[in-house]
Amino acid sequence: MLRRNCLLLFLCFLFEQSSCAPFQSRPGQEWPHSQTGPLAAGRNGGSRGFQRVKRGWVWNQFFVLEEYMGSDPQYVGKLHTDLDKGDSAVKYTLSGDGAGTIFTIDQITGDIHALRSLDREVKPYYTLRAQAVDIETNRPLEPESEFVIKVQDINDNEPKFLEGPYTASVPEMSPVGTYVMKVTATDADDPTYGNSARVVYSILHGQPYFSVDPKTGVIRTALPNMDREMKELYQVLIQAKDMGGQLGGLAGTTTINITLSDVNDNPPRFSKSIFHLRVPESSAVGSAVGRIKAHDLDIGKNAEVEYNIVPGDGGAMFDITTNEHNQEGIIMLKKPLDYETKKAYTFKVEASNAHLDPRFHNFGPFKDTATVKINVLDVDEPPVFSKPSYAMDVYEDTPQGTIIGAVTAQDLDAGNSPVRYSIDWKSDLDSFFDIDPVRGTISTNELLDRESIAQHNISVVATKVNNPVLTSKVAVTVHVLDINEFPPELAMPYETYVCESAKVGQVIQVISARDQDLPQAGQKFSFKYPQEGVKTKNFTIRDFGNNTAGVMTLRVGFKRRSQEIYHLPVVIEDGGLQTLSSTGTLTIRVCGCDTDGSLLTCSAEAIFLPVGLSTGALIAILVCIVILLVIVVLYVGVRRQKKKETLMTSKEDIRDNVIHYDDEGGGEEDTHAFDMGTLRNPKVIKENMFRRDVKPELGLCPRRPVASQNSADISNFISLRLQEHEGDTSAPPYDSLATYAYEGEGSVAESLSSIESVKGETEEDYDYLNEWGPRFKTLAGIFGERSEMPQWSWFVILVFMV
Fold it and tell me: How does the protein's chain sit in the membrane according to the entry (predicted)?
């Protein structure tokens, strides 16, 4: 009793420190269904709110069994306070998770019941709040307190493998206990309560090859030397059982597919000890002769095979490589075959693994050997030349028919057929050579010229007599050797000059020579003056001995005013067996030079130029003069263009004119049939003007203009003029101009004629014509154009004159 009172005092102290906060326990801590204490609270009817009182009842955690299957609600626990005297004055209320739906409370007694079955795996606990209130006033007697109802677990869930089925791999030939993989089963039951979630693993199917650790679920090999070539795939069934594997526990299973991975534990083996192959002797080098294969029971890189030819008889003629796709050995021809030389070859081939595993060296050598026999098949072959190519030399201008060499070909087959020779016409289009078809001797057919063609490349064809289809071809190179037939000459036309300030013995030019011949010993030239005993007073030739020579001065004081050009002959000899020579002439000009010998000018006229003007200044002056002449010509052309008079601008033709175009004749450009001057000036009409395109009629008198200027009636005037033109049989059929020299009277616009205009060169402003309307715009443009002055030309001329 003393212990209980002390515990209650300690709890009251904790409540005071937490300001009446409800007491909560750690999850998992078990408490009795209810705890009651001595009365520590009472009513205070005169107070409007609550007073701070000590709680006389405490509860923290209740338990309810999951999956309850009873017909009555499951009893959970009881709430009670010391203020409850059993007189039904206290009412208990419940709120929080599932209050009223899952859990219910008797308001008078405080008994809590669960209305339905609960599942811990869905919700493991429920948090609720309880309070004691006055049944009459509903005023809280104590602060609200929080408690937890925990769902107590039962074993209603079996272990499950969430990631199954599983796949694993382990190398073959592994020792016992080799780790394969680890499986884990999950149990949804509460692992902190009982053995419902304690899982034990066991193997149901897959023994005796594999084992499983009952606690950890680690799977290991149980048999040594499991061979993949015997069995590659194993299916293992693993069981996980809760309740520690005891009877009544729930169990779950999963399947594990375990594959034995390959290791190199098998050597390659040939299917037979001897392989027979055949190959034609005409097979090309590098071609495949045949295939052999060594089988390896392993897979992947462990089955890769390397083939090698064992050194010995016949192995040097062939080579062998490995096909990466099917691991076959491909025998390749390394050298040309000849049936007549050797008809069969025998050698050994060794097959071995490329990747060895040192763990299995004790199994024996990982290689195998087989014998390969290759028979060479005879093939009818073309003739074979004794050399792969031929080279021959011949001097140019050699007489026709001269033999310059021979080629030889032979039939190596057993029949030994005769061979015939010919020259491929495509290689000798000009037929410079000929060949004996039986002996194969090559002779000249034309005179050869080294300077035209120094080397001839021809092809000789050899054909078997008994099988003309089989031919072979060889290249023949004919070098045309040179003979000394061309004299040497100067290498180029030299432009030699000597300075007026040249010194005695100064080399003013280095010369060389060239020769169209090409002697075998190389070209050798010598230079000399034509007359070797005669001394020249101006220049001499000095041979340097290296196919070059120098022109040297023999005096000083060369002057352009006295002599501008000197000619120096040079004799050039070659070094051939028959020495040839020629004489060349050097033209030497006297020039002015700087103090360092640099050329200034070689023109004699340059001496008389003014000292103050340079060549550049003279060129600039000439360019300016040319530009001024061009401008003057342009100005004169513009002036003449402005002075051209048209029909409407002529002072004599400005009148009322009627132009008839009643006939489609030769056009205005036809000036032979009609005088175009009549159209331009009606007054200039000669008395005897007849048509030039027809024969004039006899007795035809020249037409006289009718003076009708004083006629009062313009209608009569026009009628007279029309009758005159209609009756004129000599009138031209082309475009003609009929003049009516009569002006009307009383025009509002006044007269437009220029008859009464003031004569003279004074300029008149015709801008007022623009104000008369669009009909006079063309006339205003014609007269306005005459008054324009080309002021820009005056400006340009003035600028250049300055």
Answer: Single-pass type I membrane protein
Task: Evaluate the CA torsion angle 313, 317, 319, 320 in order and state its sign.
Answer: negative
- Rounded to 10°, the helix 791-801/615-643 angle is 160
Handedness of CA 669, 675, 681, 682 (dihedral sign): negative
Distance CA 79, CA 86 (A): 13
SS3 assignment, position 566: strand
Q: Which helix (H) or strand (E) holds 394?
A: strand 389-395
**What DSSP state is assigned to residue 140?**
B
Backbone region of residue 728 per phi and psi (left: phi > 0; alpha: psi in -120 to 50; beta: other values) = beta
Band of pLDDT at residue 520, cut at 50, 70 and 90? low
Q: Check: CB of residue 461 under 8 Å from CB of residue 472.
A: yes
Sheet with 507-514: strands ordered across:
489-490, 507-514, 548-553, 539-543
Residue 147 has pLDDT above 70, yes or no: yes
CA 229 – CA 216 distance, rounded (Å): 31
367-377/274-280 β-pairing: parallel
Distance CA 435, CA 409 (A): 14
Q: How crowded is the C-beta side of 730, counted as CA atoms within 13 Å?
A: 16
Q: What is the 3-state secondary structure (H, E, C) of 664-730?
A: CCCCCCCCCCCCCHHHHCCCCCCCCCCCCCCCCCCCCCCCCCCCCCCCCCHHHHHHHHHHHHHCCCC
For 484, the token pair is: 């000394």
The Cα 727–Cα 731 span in angstroms is 9
Q: Which residues contact 334 (CB under 8 A, 6 or more apart)?
A: 285, 316, 317, 318, 319
Residues 330 and 307: their CA atoms lie apart, in Å, by 9
User: What kind and span of H or E run contains 564?
Assistant: none
Res. 722: pLDDT tops 70:
yes
- To which residue do tokens 């205009």 refer? 757
At CB < 8 A and 24+ separation, what contacts does 704-713 make?
Answer: 708/742, 709/741, 709/742, 711/742
Q: Which residues of 182-215 are buried (b: 16+ CB within 10 A; e: fewer)?
A: ebebebbbbeeebbbbbbbbebeebeeebbbebe
Q: What is the pLDDT of residues 410-448, one digit of tens each?
A: 887 777 789 999 999 998 888 899 999 999 999 999 888
The pTM assigned to this predicted structure is 0.42
Burial environment of residue 258 by CB neighbours within 10 A (0 to 12, 13 to 18, 19 or more): buried
Distance in angstroms (rounded) separating the CA atoms of residues 62 and 64? 7
CA dist 31 and 78 (Å) reads 13
Tokens coding 579: 């020495």
Residue-wise over 682-701: b if at least 16 C-beta within 10 A, else e? beeeeeebebeeeeeeeeee
